[in-house]
């Protein structure tokens, strides 16, 4: 296909999409709220770019909202997915206006009664925490585009139901157009009556019959009277000029709304064009997926039948065993009962006038001597036995059935541990949570649909050079959780890690091996020092003292009041609470990508005294050798060994000092690098050298001599909005496992 033909086809596709000719009935799944599982009603755009119904967000946030506005807002159609729910609720717009303006004059009504008590909730789409802040729902934009699509879908679903005129007296006529200014639908006669020629209403905007009346201009939720005219590329949302001048987007990169519209529309159109051009491929993959669905269904049913057969066999074995054992118990019981009954009959014969005693009494009445002797001899033997039995009484059978006690504990454990005998799925090492210093903390996770395992085995080895022999894998003890700590790793070495699972003595394949580079020196642990040079007015320190944030507020503006020319204001410094006086040490941290200006490095105690106690001209860019000023005056002395070294980063970039770049390659492009996710600093106190690393790859970005004549401290400088987060080192994490 030639370029002209491709452009023509692309243009026709875009035109079809813009005209709404793409079948809308096929996109229902995109129009369902992830919370109420119904068609969106007044959808709001969350900061993560997912949409949720207005009422669903309120239900998530409101704990007890029993005032009259709650009842009013609840008057929305209870079933927004129904075609009948086509008239927007006036109470919802009224509540929106009240929340945005805060102008409620009812007695006893407070702004806090509208603002939700809870302002944080997980997004139902991506599970990221959404913090709405003090403004609550009012800081969210309504997704009018999605509303329009939902309305078109509802109209397609109720094609047989006409939109009626809102102004007609009975009988009501079918509407032929809707006024976007009046927010009402009219038949031809009523429209002419309410929009006469020569009046301002004649200039109103009208469209075809609709129930979706949205405002002509999108207003800023933070500044209610301002139109949005820019797009913040950091927050990915429309903003007004006040947001950029002094609001929460002051230090963010923004672009014009027309430029953002053009870029995003072009990207979306190209993406749609790509998908449409791959329609044959998509259909082929759908066919493959349908085959997989059938195979999954068939194989699942087969697995169910086989499992059922195994359990039926177990049931038969148990039933046979049960019958056999119960028969043995019954036979033993009957034998004992017979013996005991015979013994009872024997003892009953010892009673007077009955049995043996009665018979003996009758024999004693015999007077014929020969007859008496003939009978009495055998009878006397029986009486003597009865007498002995009486003296040494013992039951003929024991009533205890202890020998028939059944111990099934072992079998119960086997049944509880009964599982499928397949090979377990291999786990995957989680790179985002794993950290390796002089000790390594390795996290892994199992596939979502995998069965539980008995334990895991972590293996690691030091990676050798190409000409060296590979070292053998070392194995840790059995791990019953999803992470393990590996101790005593050598510095400045690369280690490979892999893990496998075990279930019922069957081991899974190994996970793909991942490599980590250990730092060039042992880890140096510290927290931020809030007692030395810390400016509580412009810096916010976390409770754990492991994060610091620069706030560009009123205090920052007052500090710049006397600066008439230039834009240089002094940095707010903060240092670590532990100093270094010998040896090699390494630490790592993370700088927020949206930070405006952050300097990081090391400084001696003498330099800190100068920074924190000596006055300096804050309006001059040349008050410090490392001010960041590019006049070139500081380069003459930059190679000298200084009692401090700081490198500059901000706005998603890291700036290499000019003196470290060769003259041939000393242009601006070579000095500016993308900001790494994590930055490492290594100080060799004895050698008087400091190194800066990309902490993820351990690639050295910059090194320099430093005068270590005094105690050296990790130093940080912030200005104009930004944040630094110290790494949660392995030693601190290990405490939670002990």
Automatic annotation (TrEMBL):
Transmembrane feature ranges: none
Coiled coil, from the record: 279-313
Alphabetically ordered keywords of this record: Coiled coil, Cytoplasm, Cytoskeleton, Metal-binding, Microtubule, Repeat, Transferase, Ubl conjugation pathway, Zinc, Zinc-finger
PROSITE patterns with a match to the protein in the record: B302_SPRY (PS50188), COS (PS51262), FN3 (PS50853), ZF_BBOX (PS50119), ZF_RING_1 (PS00518), ZF_RING_2 (PS50089)
Record-annotated Fibronectin type-III domain positions: 423-521
GO molecular function terms noted in the UniProt entry: ubiquitin-protein transferase activity; zinc ion binding
Domain COS: 364-421
Region of interest (Disordered), residue spans: 71-92
GO cellular component terms, semicolon-separated: acrosomal vesicle; microtubule
Subcellular location: Cytoplasm, Cytoskeleton
Gene3D superfamilies found in the cross-reference section: 1.20.5.170, 2.60.120.920, 4.10.830.40, Classic Zinc Finger (3.30.160.60), Immunoglobulins (2.60.40.10), Zinc/RING finger domain, C3HC4 (zinc finger) (3.30.40.10)
Domain B30.2/SPRY as annotated: residue spans: 506-734
Family to which this protein belongs: Belongs to the TRIM/RBCC family.
Record protein name field: RING-type E3 ubiquitin transferase
The organism of origin for this protein: Astyanax mexicanus (Blind cave fish)
């Amino acid at each position: 296909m030639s370029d002209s033909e491709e452009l023509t086809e692309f243009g026709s596709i875009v035109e079809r999409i813009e005209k709404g000719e793409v079948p809308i009935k096929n996109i229902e799944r995109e129009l369902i709220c992830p919370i109420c599982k119904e068609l969106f009603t007044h959808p709001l755009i969350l900061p993560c770019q997912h949409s949720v119904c207005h009422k669903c967000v309120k239900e998530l946030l409101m704990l007890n909202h029993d005032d009259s506005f709650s009842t009013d807002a609840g008057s929305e159609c209870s079933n927004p997915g129904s075609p009948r729910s086509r008239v927007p609720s006036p109470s919802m717009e009224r509540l929106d206006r009240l929340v945005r303006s805060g102008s409620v004059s009812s007695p006893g009504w407070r702004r806090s009664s509208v603002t939700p008590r809870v302002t944080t909730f997980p997004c139902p789409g991506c599970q990221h925490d959404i913090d709405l802040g003090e403004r609550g729902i009012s800081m969210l934009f309504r997704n009018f585009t999605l509303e329009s699509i939902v309305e078109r879908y509802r109209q397609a679903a109720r094609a047989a139901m006409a939109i009626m005129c809102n102004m007609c007296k009975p009988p009501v006529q079918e509407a032929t157009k809707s006024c976007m200014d009046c927010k009402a639908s009219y038949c031809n006669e009523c429209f002419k009556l309410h929009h006469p020629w020569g009046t301002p209403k004649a200039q109103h905007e009208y469209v075809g019959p609709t129930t979706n009346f949205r405002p002509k201009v999108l207003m800023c939720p933070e500044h209610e009277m301002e139109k949005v005219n820019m797009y913040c590329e950091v927050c990915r949302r429309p903003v007004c000029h006040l947001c950029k001048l002094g609001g929460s987007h002051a230090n963010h990169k923004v672009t014009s709304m027309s430029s953002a519209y053009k870029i995003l529309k072009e990207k979306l159109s190209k993406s749609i064009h790509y998908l449409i051009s791959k329609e044959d491929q998509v259909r082929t993959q759908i066919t493959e997926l349908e085959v997989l669905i059938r195979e999954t269904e068939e194989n699942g049913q087969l697995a169910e039948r086989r499992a059922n057969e195994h359990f039926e066999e177990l049931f038969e074995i148990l039933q046979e065993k049960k019958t056999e054992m119960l028969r043995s118990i019954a036979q033993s019981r009957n034998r004992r009962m017979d013996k005991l009954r015979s013994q009872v009959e024997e003892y009953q014969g010892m009673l007077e006038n009955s049995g043996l005693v009665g018979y003996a009494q009758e024999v004693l009445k015999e007077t014929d001597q020969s007859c008496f002797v003939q009978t009495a001899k055998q009878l006397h033997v029986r009486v003597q036995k009865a007498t002995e039995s009486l003296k040494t009484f013992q039951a003929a059978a024991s009533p205890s059935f202890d020998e028939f006690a059944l111990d099934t504990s072992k079998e119960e454990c086997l049944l509880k541990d009964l599982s499928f005998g397949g090979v377990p799925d291999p786990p995957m090492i989680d790179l985002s949570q794993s950290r390796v210093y002089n000790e390594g903390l390795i996290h892994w996770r199992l596939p979502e649909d995998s069965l539980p395992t008995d334990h895991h085995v972590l293996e690691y080895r030091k990676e050798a050079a190409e000409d060296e022999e590979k070292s053998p894998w070392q194995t840790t003890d059995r791990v019953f959780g999803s992470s393990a700590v590996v101790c005593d790793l050598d510095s400045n070495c690369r280690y490979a890690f892999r893990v496998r699972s075990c279930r019922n003595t069957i081991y899974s394949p190994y996970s793909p091996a991942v490599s980590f580079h250990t730092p060039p020196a042992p880890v140096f642990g510290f927290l931020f020092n809030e007692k030395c040079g810390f400016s509580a007015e412009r810096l916010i320190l976390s409770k754990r003292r492991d994060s610091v944030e620069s706030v560009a507020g009123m205090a920052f503006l007052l500090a710049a009041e006397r600066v008439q020319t230039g834009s240089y204001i002094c940095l707010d410094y903060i240092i670590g609470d532990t100093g270094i006086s010998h040896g090699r040490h390494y630490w790592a941290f993370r700088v927020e990508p949206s930070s405006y200006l952050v300097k990081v490095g090391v400084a001696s105690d003498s330099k800190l005294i100068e920074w924190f106690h000596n006055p300096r001209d804050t309006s001059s860019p040349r008050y410090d050798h490392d001010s960041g000023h590019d006049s070139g005056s500081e380069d003459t002395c930059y190679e000298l060994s200084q009692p401090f070294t700081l490198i500059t980063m901000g706005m998603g970039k890291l700036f290499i000092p000019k003196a470290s770049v060769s003259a041939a390659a000393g242009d601006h492009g070579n000095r500016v690098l993308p900001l790494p996710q994590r930055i490492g600093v290594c100080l060799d106190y004895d050698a008087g050298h400091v190194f800066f690393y990309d902490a993820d790859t351990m690639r050295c970005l910059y090194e320099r001599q430093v005068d270590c004549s005094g105690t050296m401290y990790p130093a940080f400088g912030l200005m104009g909005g930004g944040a630094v987060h110290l790494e949660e080192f392995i030693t601190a994490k290990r405490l939670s496992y002990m």
